[in-house]
Amino acid sequence: MTTTALNRPAMNVRNLTAPQISTLKALLFLLCLMPAGLLVKGFFDDALGANPIEAITHATGEWTLRFLLITLAVTPLRKLTHWHWLIRLRRMLGLFTFFYALLHFLTYVVLDQFFDGAAIVLDVLKRPYITVGFSAFVLLIPLAVTSTNAMVRRLGGRRWQALHRSVYGIAILGVMHYWWLVKSDLTQPILYGLVLAALLGFRVWWRNEERKAQLAGKFAMEGPPGVKINQRIIPIKSQTP
Ligand code: HEM
Question: Distance from the CA of 61 to the center of ligand 1, in angstroms?
Fold first, then answer.
């Protein structure tokens, strides 16, 4: 081993440096582009099977749902591992969710329906799985538009957070869309549904834990719950004998 290698501090996964995060972001960006790149390559190589439009619709739909769930997994993962830099990757993952949703939607509008507005409107109104998918896509638009720092500042933290909480509803619509369109084997939508349920469950559990910790902190400062008379705490008698 060289002396420079020995002198270099070991990488601390919990606290990555700014250049390390930038490198990671660049690598992640390329990785996230890969499914789209492979589809484009498959298209030009004529390697997407007998029905390339169906293959593109399915791949872009699946990647939209995967990116949606990966984006939702960032916060639980950050809380469990204390790798706080993970939050710096969340916006990119969210935008890739929108990118794949847009590709999915455009495949439907351009390649499947050939810009036939009337047929599209009829489809959205008449076929429940299209109605649900379309709603999910429309709801993703404000999240993508407000993803910049300037928009966070303009909306204010609380309003921005309230808006972006709708991503859980969007994910539910995404799973419903998949569930509805599958004709026989429900394994895939069930798996996506279970992952989403686990992520939602974690969120509820974590919020409960935080609330309990907050209450414990409050009692530590103020003393136990009871009736305060002249600043003395008269304990409330237990109901049990
Ligand atoms: C967030 C939004 C959306 C998500 C997460 C999503 C997800 C999916 C998934 C996972 C599939 C199945 C892929 C497979 O079979 O492997 C799919 C298929 C499909 N989606 Fe979406 N989708 C969304 C929005 C839309 C929209 C806006 C439209 C059209 C208006 C649409 C139309 C379709 C169609 C036509 C199929 C193929 C159905 C078939 O196989 O018969 N989706 N989508």
Answer: 5
Per-residue pLDDT, averaged over 150-165, amounts to: 96
Q: Give which of 143, 14, 6 is closest to 83, Cα–Cα.
A: 14
What pLDDT, on a 0 to 100 scale, did the predictor assign at position 240? Answer: 40
Q: Which residues pair with 233 in a beta bridge?
A: 228
pLDDT in tens, 191-225: 999 999 999 999 999 999 999 999 988 777 776 55
pTM: 0.87
**Phi and psi at residue 66, to the nearest 5°:** -60, -45
In one-letter notation, the amino acid at residue 32 is C
Task: Map out the domains of the chain as residue ranges.
Answer: 18-181
Which residues contact ligand 1 via a Cβ below 6 A? 57-58, 61-62, 64-65, 101, 104-105, 108, 130, 133-134, 136-137, 140, 174, 177-178, 181
